[in-house]
Amino acid sequence: MSSKITIIGAGSVGSTIAYTLSSQDIASEIVLIDINKKKAEGEVLDIIQGTCFRDPISIIAGDYEDARDSDIVIITSGIARKPGQTRLELTQTNVNILKSITPEIVKAAPNALYLIVSNPVDIMTYVFTKISGLPENQILGSGTILDSARLRCGLSEHFQIAQSNIHAYVFGEHGDTSFIPWSGAYISGVSVDEYYDLEKKLGKDIEPIDKEAMLQYVQKSGGEIISKKGATFYAVSSSVCKLCSLLVSSSESISTVSTMMHGEYGIDDVCLSTLTLVGPNGVQGKVPMRMTKAEIEQLKKSADALKEIIAQIDLN
Fold first, then answer.
1. Phi-psi category of residue 216: left, alpha or beta, with phi > 0 → left and psi -120 to 50 → alpha
2. pTM summary value
3. Listed residue (31, 97, 234) closest to 242, CA to CA
4. Which of 282, 266, 260 is closest to 125 using CA atoms?
5. Which domains does the chain have, with CATH numbers?
6. Nearest by Cα to 6 from 128, 115, 139
7. Tens-digit pLDDT profile for residues 73-90
8. Of residues 128, 174, 240, 305, which has the active-site annotation?
9. Distance between CA atoms of 273 and 141, rounded to whole angstroms?
């Protein structure tokens, strides 16, 4: 698989994405760009010295012009979230950083697919969509793909079943107003509630799932990791690399990524995560999932929370 991927930002997340990509067969060229050129050079040197154990790959610390002809551009730049700080408190500072980056990178790579990872990711995806001038199909945010991975991890541990058998998702904001549409949570075609009943019939010693506790596990995992080790970067990097693999695949896949809403579920002019069809041509559209009225209201509540913040930020 031959593709060129540029990563903007050589912090913990950006450099871990570069390292993870270097050990997989997703990219043949990786460009790492950071305002701190020496930091980017150090990360690249550390990564490339381990690539003798794989097929040849090009990894450089570059400038914006080196992003030319990129298939994918990943934007991770921004100030990291501090312990006790919400993603939304980062907003204006990281928006300002994005505004300085956008014209430079879009000029160099106008045809790339853009994957926004910087937090707060839904607002950053919205801002990039508004200021980049690019077609919307070229833009997606990592959204709740990590939240959904955390949910699958939690459900796997609860039911003692392989994560690959679990199809359950987190919708809405990547943050405090996210929610789990349990009406669409399945374990190999069986609803979560039905699966619990099945396990009991099979004599398994299993407790009913505490759905509110599971949501708290999903929402609070990032903060817990930050409080214990200072930052989160392994799982988010794995999630981003998975998205990259979808974007260079020969067929399309469905994922919970953050994209602009155009009336779906009665929501417009905001970026958040629902089931979305993505592939080599970028975002192809939303996949409507049947939800209860209460779940749709939760999605609207998440949208309203994001719109409230968007109304307060300076896009000019």
1. alpha
2. 0.94
3. 234
4. 260
5. 4-141 (3.40.50.720), 145-310 (3.90.110.10)
6. 115
7. 999 999 876 667 665 677
8. 174
9. 9
